[in-house]
Amino acid sequence: MAIFSAASESLPVVSGNRTRPPRHLADLTASQRREVAVSLGEPGFRADQIARHYFARHLDADDADAMTDLPAASRAALLGALLPVLLTPANVATCDGGDTRKTLWKAFDGVLVESVLMRYPDRATVCVSSQAGCGMGCPFCATGQGGLTRNLSTAEIVEQVVAAARVLARGELSGGPARLSNVVFMGMGEPLANYATVIGALRVLSDPPPAGLGLSARSITVSTVGLVPAMRRLAGSGLPVTLAVSLHAPDDELRDRLVPVNRRWPVAEVLAAAWEYGETTGRRVSIEYALIDDVNDQPERADALAGLLTGRLAHVNLIPLNPTRGVSWQASERRREREFVRRLRSRGIAATVRDTRGREIAAACGQLAADEADGSGHATG
Ligand code: SAH
Ligand code: SF4
């Protein structure tokens, strides 16, 4: 199976002697945050004030003047210690009439990650990255082609969500101010390969302010390629997030090619862990299936998939393949896509074709970052 290497060959650039992202309040527990304030000679509650500004008002260090409850003389020191700048926008692109906004972020060490904010009539969803790059090597995925650069920190993940909430609250997407309702871990990276950090982010996203952002865990979806031990740990974490499993093929022969980690945890083991997850959390599991023309969209594969899912609390999310540079695969023809859906539904399997928001600005997983890295970025800021 081909694993490509065009997208991001650069090693992380280390600024100064820093090798980790700066410490940020989203990396710390509430009591650790207070200790930081105390270490600066300030009362511990200053940390709660800053956390409230960040999580409830979505302010950042640039908004220091708006934090009028902090003494002017200590604002800079407190914000420097608890609210450093983690990500700066390197490219922002909007499409879908202003309803979709994709941001390419540059981290402290120059690595690029992306997030996509999508506004719908009834909800607003941000798709976030959990790693810079990805080590799983799925050949149809732009992120997979460049390998893993590094794990993101908890605060780098949380910051993508807070930035999206800020854009919505300030009415910067069309349709006026709105609240962020959903988070999906479907940007760059394999979230369960950065397990402890992602769990930390899930806790911060779901804890109420001032500890965190106060989103409901159920409105957060973690998408995984099928890392079985981590799926089991997630089930036991007490965080009832929605689990999405990227299956893409019902048989090991094809899945070994499309999702190389299948050689370690094959279809039967991945699905057994998915059903366990559903039983433990009471949540319906989402099965992701990118439809690739003449590769995995045959009628017999639809039937085989239906056979695997019959009687299970599952929903199939079919994703028209977003073609990736260097790979000749295309999205399924509409006729084949319709037949695939029909076959699943005729066997009682819930299936929908995912809307391909942001396609015109290459919003599929990892594509904006890949374009930027090889110098052919076509999104405009
Ligand atoms: N690593 C995780 C989450 C990030 S990828 C995972 O693989 O689940 C998010 C989703 O985008 C996955 O379902 C993935 O299979 C899908 N995806 C990746 N590249 C794609 C492409 N070129 N076209 C359509 N879907 C793609
Ligand atoms: Fe990684 Fe997911 Fe892309 Fe596979 S599809 S390479 S797991 S980001």
Tell me what you see in this structure.
Mean pLDDT is 89; it is low at 1-15, 362-366 and 368-381. The chain is elongated and about 70 Å long. β7 (182-185), α6 (195-206) and β8 form a beta-alpha-beta unit. It folds into two domains: 10-82, DNA polymerase, domain 1 (Orthogonal Bundle), CATH 1.10.150.530; 87-376, Aldolase class I (TIM Barrel). It has 381 residues and is α/β, with parallel strands linked by helices. The strands form two sheets. The chain has a ten-stranded mixed β-sheet with strand order 1-2-3-4-7-8-9-10-11-12, sandwiched between helices. Helices cover 33% and strands 18% of the residues. α5 runs parallel beside α6 (195-206), α7 packs parallel to α9 (267-281) and α10 (299-309) runs parallel beside α11 (334-346). S-adenosyl-L-homocysteine binds next to β8 and β10.
